[in-house]
Amino acid sequence: MIVDAETDEARTTLAGRRFDLAICGAGPAGITLALELAASGHDVALLEGGGLEYLDHSQELYQGENGGLDYFDLDIVRVRQFGGSTNHWGGWVRPLDGDDFARRAEVPLSGWPIDKADIDIYEDRAAAILEAPGSEELGNPGHPLGHEFGGLHSIRFEITDAVRFADKYVEEVRASQRILLVLHCNVLDMVLHDGLGTVSHVVCAAYDRPETFTVEARLFTLAMGGLENPRFLLNARSQVPGGIGNGNDLVGRYFAEHPDVWAGFYLVRPDLPSFAGPSFLVPDRAWTAAHRTLRYCLAIAGHKEEESWSLATIKARLEQWACSSELTLSILHMLRSDMKAGQVLCTDDLEEIEGLPGAGQVRIFTEQAPNAQSRLTLADSRDRFGLRRPRLEWNLTDLDFHTMREAVRGFGAELATADLGRVRMADWLRAEQPEFPSTRTDRVAHHHHIGTTRMADDPKTGVVDRDARVFGIDNLYIAGSSIFTTGGYANPTLTIIQLTLRLADHLRTRLA
Least enclosed by CB within 10 Å: which of 14, 194, 247, 510? Predict the structure, then answer.
């Protein structure tokens, strides 16, 4: 059933009713959780601040401030309507790897409190929800250069048709006798009782009616997204100074993205087979441990195959952009020489090599090291409901930059050792104090908001426990990528759905 919070019908339907579960946010996690619990015979209130269509006055509530690295405006990296960010996602799907869950000595605060096996059992169901193949169908595509490197392995991402949850599930929700979807329902506050250890109800408001209303439930789940989950908790200060779940000042901390930047060029022998690209290379655990890096993925753009190009032809092309004949000769000499493994093209005057046979770009996207200084806080400015807007302080660590450099060096070493080609690291990355690219010049990140209510076994290192329950609050849970302990390199949507299905099983047990 669907009602509009602007109407009397919604108030009448909610009056005096206590749901089994109230879910704040109707994105992929919220919708999945609602359908799962409803299928088990439980009554669910699904509270969505937006409508079935995009609304400017709803989206405006996502505005905020950026105070760290250059980042996108906060109201363009998410969508505030039924279906959430699946209304504009790219459809890329890949599960996290087992190493992503492991404790790694080189990565402080790494190690999830659960194992990959704990969510693997939900992978097929999650893939079906996203209309994607399971991981067994991804297979190993083989190395794009026809050579298997020691520490780097080729992987695939499944690029789906980007299922829109709003289109796929709106009629099922409308027909459900167990789900009450309340549109234009802005959740403003959460009221605790039992010594502040249990949620009694949430306080809500529509846009055009001045009076607030409440929604009561046995259990509550925040599924508002990786920025809005912590923002809501930090704003919920009517009873708890500092915000609900924030006793250890961790709500909003450890914000992570998937940095995605141009990292250099590669140049391989023109006789090697071309490929359309991009191809994706990831390191194995032995490599990351030996080089003390994070988990990352190199995206190798396809290169041209023109076997007729001789060194003389390459020389002619080089002369089109090289600043001197000496530079041209030195590059040609380098390409023919027996360079030591790991040496990279690094001539400051070499601005680009695109267009040469065997040339392609190297991009890197990587997880971030857990960093308490990368965080979401509250700005002084307020929205139309009087809630403080979010302020994002996105920051990277030395380990993040070290990982990017070692990734490029490692790829260069593999090419040189196999006598396949060479790599030139991007100038910005070679700098002693790298200046991370701007959103005006590069892709920068993937709009993935991770870690702001991270999962842990200890309330001193996380906001939710292994069951996604907020520490210290008996009946409050969180769904979405904000609970990721670390982010890996894979797109998060499949993992979000897996974790949500796992949460659904836990909530069924509690409601039994």
Answer: 194
Q: Are residues 220 and 314 in the same domain?
A: no
What are 328's two structure tokens? 């041209």
Q: pLDDT digit string (tens) for 19-37?
A: 999 999 999 999 999 999 9
* Whether residues 195 and 269 fall in one domain: no
Residues 342 and 475 reside in one and the same domain: no
- Return the closest-CA partner of residue 202 out of 242, 239, 176, 249: 239
Q: Distance between CA 484 and CA 489 in Å, rounded?
A: 12
| Distance separating alpha carbons of residues 486 and 255, to the nearest angstrom | 10
* pTM for the whole structure: 0.89
Residue 156 lies in a domain: no
Query: Looking at the structure, do residues 112 and 179 belong to the same domain, yes or no?
Result: yes
- Looking at the structure, tell me whether residues 402 and 385 fall in a common domain: no
Q: What are phi and psi of 417, to 5 degrees?
A: -60, -40
Q: CA-based diameter of the chain, in Å?
A: 84
**Residue 119 sits in which domain range?**
2-132+161-254+370-395+450-511
Q: What is the dihedral of CA 73, 482, 178, 211, to 10 degrees?
A: -50
% of the chain residues with pLDDT over 70: 86
CATH number at residue 194: 3.50.50.60
pLDDT at 134 over 90: no
Q: Average the pLDDT over 293-321 and give the result.
A: 61
CA distance 512 to 502: 16
pLDDT, one tens digit per residue, over 74-84 is: 999 999 999 99
For the beta carbon of residue 356, count every other beta carbon within 10 angstroms. 20
Q: Is 149 contained in some domain?
A: no
End-to-end alpha carbon distance in the chain:
24
Bridge partners for 177 per DSSP: none
